[in-house]
Write a structure and sequence with these properties.
With about 450 residues, the chain is of the alpha+beta class. The protein is built from 14 helices and 21 strands.
Length: about 450
């Protein structure tokens, strides 16, 4: 399911249902030239321009009252270079289609997030990531970018060509131009063995450094109001391929993770006092399992329960302390939290506004079901995250502004200077960018 625009009144709505916008007009360009023309026309009409993918951001990063660009015709693989081991793909291509196409070619991305509904440009522009000791964000796998800038010209960048644009535009927030194509590093298709098992929260925290160091990809979900977590370790495997069986997969991924979970959310909304009991039952419903498959089948899973999310990156060394503070806050607050807290990691990277820019990071994500009041919980969590110089995910709920970001991103000024050069008239500005980057 993607974002929707209802024809009746032209209102655009995001996936989480918490952001709406009414663009003056929508364009669906079929080529880079058509997109460049749409940007030039918008400038003549004095309108701002925003591209929107599938609306999976919970912030208003893609909202506009100007020209809304939908990239669904800019899809598909342009080129596979087996010598360089890269693939160039059109910006509107959904990750799901890219993963399937690569697998057919015997190729794969090194790492990915846990959902694959988003477009490649939407996912990378907001810093979407998975978990990993050596790799995590999708943007860190980018080798080259093509974008239409504010004057309607097409700019290409890589480590060698326009390197200062490349440093910033891999996670460009839609502020530097509209990405039209992305070149990713790929590798021969490999197998991963996933080991999922329940583990006490205190043990995960005590052994976190070991669990992180001993696994290529470690993550866990903690169920608030319980001492339980579900851990997941993904490591490369020589095979053979042993996928999750159809029936077991349906029971665990669809029935428990989406079906029972959805019912638990409804009950929790109707009777908040039952949430701790439901959480204890939910945390025990998932049993240990091991399976081996190609990467996208291990890294990603369907998410059918609609939610709203906040996620912060804190320095990796601070993650256990941050989580202990979060647990104490939830216990003392009287809040009833029915959605697990997700914890992942990423190595430091060299992208200007990446949440892992220049520091090894751990991600802590808090969720609430769509339609439930999330402010009290998110505000309490954000207070803890910011005390540890946390950096919020650009596509998830947060209340930070440019002044805050200038303090937690050493290269923040580098990004805003580049934006001044590439978009002096703020053609790609919207309320969200005004807040997070300054005007």
């Amino acid at each position: 399911m993607s974002s929707t625009t209802s024809a009746k009144n032209g209102t655009w709505r995001n996936w989480g249902g918490n952001v709406t916008a009414r663009p003056a007009r929508e364009v669906t360009p079929a080529s880079v030239d058509e997109l460049a023309e749409a940007v030039r026309r918008a400038a003549e009409d004095g309108l701002k321009v925003k591209a929107v993918g599938t609306g999976h951001s919970f912030t208003s990063i893609a909202a506009t009252d100007g020209v809304l660009v939908r990239p669904q015709l800019l899809t598909g693989i342009r080129d596979i270079d087996r010598d360089a081991m890269t693939v160039t793909v059109e910006a509107g291509t959904p990750l799901k289609r890219l993963n399937l196409a690569l697998a057919r070619e015997g190729l794969s991305l090194t790492n990915m997030g846990d959902i694959m509904e988003q477009t490649v440009s939407g996912a990378t522009s907001t810093g979407t990531h998975g978990t990993g000791r050596e790799s995590a964000s999708i943007a860190a796998q980018i080798k080259g970018l093509e974008l239409v800038t504010a004057d309607g010209s097409v700019l290409t960048c890589s480590e060698k060509e326009n390197p200062e644009v490349f440093a910033a535009a891999r996670i460009g927030l839609g502020a530097l131009g509209i990405v039209t194509a992305i070149t990713f590093a790929v590798e021969p298709l490999f197998l991963l063995t996933a080991r999922e098992e329940p583990m006490p929260f205190d043990r995960v925290l005590a052994d976190f450094d070991e669990l992180w160091a001993e696994n290529e990809h470690f993550e866990f979900y903690w169920f608030p109001h319980t001492g339980s977590t579900n851990t997941k370790r993904n490591n490369r495997s020589a095979g053979p391929r042993r996928p999750v069986g159809r029936a077991a997969g349906w029971i665990e991924d669809e029935f428990l993770s989406n079906g029972v979970f959805q019912v638990a959310q409804w009950v929790g909304r109707a009777a908040p006092a039952t949430v701790p009991t439901i959480a204890r039952v939910s945390s025990k419903a998932l049993s240990a399992r091991t399976y081996t498959d190609i990467p996208f089948k291990v890294f990603t899973s369907p998410r059918r329960v609609r939610f709203v999310e906040m996620e912060y990156a804190v320095p990796r060394a601070a993650v256990t302390e941050t989580l202990r503070e979060l647990r104490t806050t939830i216990e003392r607050s009287g809040l009833r939290i029915s959605f697990p807290v997700e914890v992942r990691t990423a190595p430091a990277d060299d992208i200007t506004l990446s949440t892992a820019s220049g520091r090894d990071s751990a991600y802590i994500a808090v969720h609430m079901v769509r339609g439930t009041p999330f402010q009290a919980y998110f505000t309490a969590a954000e207070r803890i995250f910011t005390a540890h110089e946390g950096r919020p995910h650009w596509g998830k709920v947060h209340t930070r502004d440019a002044e805050y970001f200038a303090g937690v991103y050493p290269r923040f000024g580098e990004f805003t200077a580049l934006r001044d050069r590439l978009d002096p008239d703020r053609r790609f500005q919207n309320d969200y960018l005004r807040r997070v980057l300054g005007s």
